[in-house]
Amino acid sequence: MTPQPATSGAARGIARRAAGHRLLWPALVLLALLLGNLAFHHDFLSVRVRDGHLYGSLVDILRFGAPLVLVALGMTLVIATRGIDLSVGSTVAIAGALACAHLSGAARPGSVTTTLTAVALALAVALVLGLANGLLVSGLGVQPIVATLILMVAGRGVAQLITDGQIITVTSAPYKMIGGGYWLLLPFAVLLAAVLVALTAFVTRRSALGMLIESVGGNPTASRLVGIRAGGLLALVYVFSALCAAVAGLMISSNVSSADGNNAGLWIELDAILAVVVGGTALTGGRFSLGGTVLGALVIQTLSTTVYTLGVPPETTLVFKAFVVVIVCLVQSPVFRAKLVRRRATTPRFPAAAGPAPQEQEARA
Predict the structure, then answer these.
(1) Entry pTM
(2) Strands 53-55, 186-187: pairing kind
């Protein structure tokens, strides 16, 4: 028997490690969605320069997906601590409503100073809301789903009170830059989201913060016994989640130059949770993947774009999205893949040769 070359064994090892990587399946799903759109629209992947900036379907996916990336970024750290934040949609609405309300009532809404004040006001209120969630969870021991559900329901009403139940329209070029402007040929929202993702990855992976978050979510009892202050970490991740949601709210309201307290950020918390799950972070807490979350958010946004591209009726959009997400989660599940491989291994490759049945053999004997 001729020995197999060492390179083939190394190649198999690399392929095995790549198949087990948590980013492989979200990347493959994203690629499949993009190629599927390419089959229906041959110029779907084309990117060209128009009016001084990049233009194309890929650029639109990145631009419209930037708010979801930010909301899912904060949600990732919350889920890593074995929590959940259902209030991010309301925080999105409150942040946009506060900024637009301040701009609409200002004497010079188009000035940079007024815009910076509106942004600072929205971010400051979001920090307070996130701290309130964190104190309910860490200080009072309220279940995360209950604590954030309170703000999810009440926050939408607060946004309606800020806008007085109306859609506030603003005209401000500096504010328009946040969600609808371009810089260096790229959408400014994409650049802002990329900077926040990079900073979060640097802080969580180049310091002990990421390890502490994973330890609190993976084993709270052991973390407490070794002296980790879980309360402060829990409050920190909820504050960060609210901050990310507020920036996303500024992007959304800036892009349309208006604030809608009723519909802004509606159900974005569900898309964020789906993005985190598709990205490979378990809802049971512990290890998290920021890169997987970004891919998951792009998968959700590409899926939404695909739905509109294919002309799926609006009343079946959520059903279509849920069906695809279920398939993605099944493909990612190691248990499902193991059962599938085991079933294929136990299936006979060739049919057995025909012969007398056991009853006939006994009769002949």
Answers:
(1) 0.86
(2) unpaired
